[in-house]
Design goal:
The protein is mostly beta strands and 192 residues long. It contains 4 helices and 14 strands. Strands 3, 5, 6, 8, 11, 12, 13 and 14 form an 8-stranded antiparallel beta sheet that branches. A 4-stranded antiparallel beta sheet has the order 2-1-9-10. A two-stranded antiparallel ribbon has the order 4-7. The two termini are 30 Å apart.
């Protein structure tokens, strides 16, 4: 699935969860260590790519979500898992709709190749690269976070439910990534 094909898809929206409006951002294709991820994706597909968790809920209530930490090799990240239906279902019937990559909170050791739509590369992209790929952010904060100079660029309402949030480190390079797309995947029937 190309970005252009993804942009052509119309998505239903879970009304309870705020969503970003920019179709290109919503349909972003992301690559982590040369494996492509398109959000949202079935939980079972995400797990089939080698991601393991020491604790994850066995089920999620209807029209709700949960977070869990997953690890794959030397890469650890927080994952947003959504149940789009109205009834509680097994975690295997849910979708991964977002992720958070933050070396200050999660174990990210060794070489990890993370690339976002627009060619943005983790630990390489600068503020100008992000603006070139996604335009001006909805909100920018530059200052000290825990005593370390950094810049946060926020796109859309809530980066852990739908949207993006990027943090640049003291060297001005992309350090933290929070990305989510809570739109109901095409072809999914939301039960009554």
């Amino acid at each position: 699935l190309t970005l252009e094909e993804a942009k052509a898809n119309n998505r239903k929206i879970v009304e309870k969860i705020p969503l970003i409006e920019d179709q290109e951002i919503k349909e972003a294709l992301n690559s982590i260590n040369d494996t492509v991820y398109k959000l949202p994706m079935p939980y079972t597909e995400f797990r089939s790519k080698g991601w393991e968790s020491s604790y994850v809920a066995t089920s999620i209530p209807g029209n709700s979500y949960d977070y869990a930490t997953f690890k794959n090799g030397n890469m650890e990240m927080q994952v947003l898992i959504i149940n789009y239906g109205l009834k509680e279902v097994s975690i295997e019937e849910c979708f991964v709709a977002g992720f958070s990559i933050d070396p200050d909170w999660y174990d990210i050791s060794g070489n990890n190749n993370i690339e976002l739509a627009g060619g943005l590369k983790w630990m390489e992209a600068k503020e100008s690269d992000i603006k070139k790929a996604y335009g001006a952010p909805d909100y920018t904060y530059s200052g000290d976070i825990d005593g370390v100079p950094s810049t946060t660029m926020d796109y859309a309402d809530d980066e852990l439910q739908s949207g993006m949030d990027f943090e640049l480190n003291a060297d001005g390079v992309l350090y933290c990534i929070n990305m989510a797309n809570a739109a109901v995947p095409e072809g999914i029937q939301v039960d009554a």
